């Protein structure tokens, strides 16, 4: 979701241990927890857009959720506000340190980018799912000049294994202009798995 001049927002599922029973999720929703698909709408509709990006971050940090997930949020670059961040959420609050755009010591990335998949960003990538590491390597290779453009971001999101047979679509958003470009994807496997960061999780022909 994107609202021009306010924020762009994207979510990734986050597993819980033990997994949440469906009955509990539905009970919590009945008790006032916000379902995952409505969290961003709830935040943007409840706040005055002229208040800026930080109030959106504050609300997303504290809203009661029915299930945990990750939030990647970016703002339009107003003075005194973060450019963007990644937040791991549990049902009641923030689950770990924020990865803040522009702060190379706060999470994944080199300060000018942050990459998030489906794992806590303060932990190493799982050996069988190196998407975050691969995304970071691609962004570093592209460099800040090209990597921060819409085309550069699309390139990073389109490189294997970030883009793999499980990728449904890719979206690039601008919180400044409100632009959102989304592309429905086709399954992608490397032509020569031995020359790519590949594993059998994504492509049966991939080298172990």
Quick structural summary:
By secondary structure, the chain is of the alpha+beta class.
Write a structural description:
This protein is α+β, with helices and mostly antiparallel strands. The protein has one domain. The protein is built from 5 helices and 7 strands. It has a 5-stranded antiparallel sheet with strand order 1-2-3-4-5, covered by helices on one side. A two-stranded antiparallel ribbon has the order 6-7. A hairpin with a 6-residue loop joins strand 6 and strand 7. Helix 4 (131-147) packs antiparallel against helix 5 (150-158). It starts with a strand and ends in a 24-residue tail after the last strand. 28% of the residues are buried.
Q: Average pLDDT, to the nearest integer?
A: 87
**Which strand order spans the largest sheet, edge to edge or round the barrel?**
1-2-3-4-5
Q: Determine Rg (CA atoms, Å).
A: 18 Å
Question: Number of helical runs?
Answer: 5
Please describe the biggest sheet, giving its number of strands, its sense, and whether it closes into a barrel.
5 strands, antiparallel
SSE string, helices as H and strands as E: EEHHHEEEHHEE
Given the C-alpha coordinates, what overall shape results?
A: globular
Helix and strand content put the structural class at alpha+beta
Percent helix? 25-40%
Low-confidence stretches: none
Question: Total strand count, please?
Answer: 7
């Amino acid at each position: 979701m994107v609202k021009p001049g306010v924020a762009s927002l994207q979510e990734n599922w986050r597993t819980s241990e033990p997994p949440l029973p469906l009955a509990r999720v539905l009970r919590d929703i009945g008790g006032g927890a916000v379902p995952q698909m409505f969290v961003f709408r709830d935040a943007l509709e409840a706040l005055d857009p002229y208040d800026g990006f930080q109030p959106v971050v504050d609300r997303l940090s504290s809203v009661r959720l029915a299930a945990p997930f990750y939030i990647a949020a970016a703002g339009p670059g107003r003075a005194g506000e973060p450019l963007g961040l990644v937040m791991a959420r549990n049902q009641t609050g923030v689950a770990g340190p924020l990865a803040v755009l522009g702060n190379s010591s706060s999470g994944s990335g080199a300060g000018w980018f942050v990459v998030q998949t489906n794992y806590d960003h303060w932990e190493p990538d799982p050996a069988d799912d190196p998407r975050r590491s691969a995304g970071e390597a691609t962004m570093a290779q592209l460099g800040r000049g090209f990597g921060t453009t819409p085309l550069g971001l699309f390139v990073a999101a389109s490189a294997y294994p970030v883009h793999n047979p499980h990728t449904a679509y890719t979206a690039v958003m601008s919180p400044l202009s409100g632009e959102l470009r989304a592309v429905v994807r086709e399954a992608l496997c490397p032509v020569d798995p031995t020359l790519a960061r590949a594993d059998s999780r994504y492509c049966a022909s991939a080298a172990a």
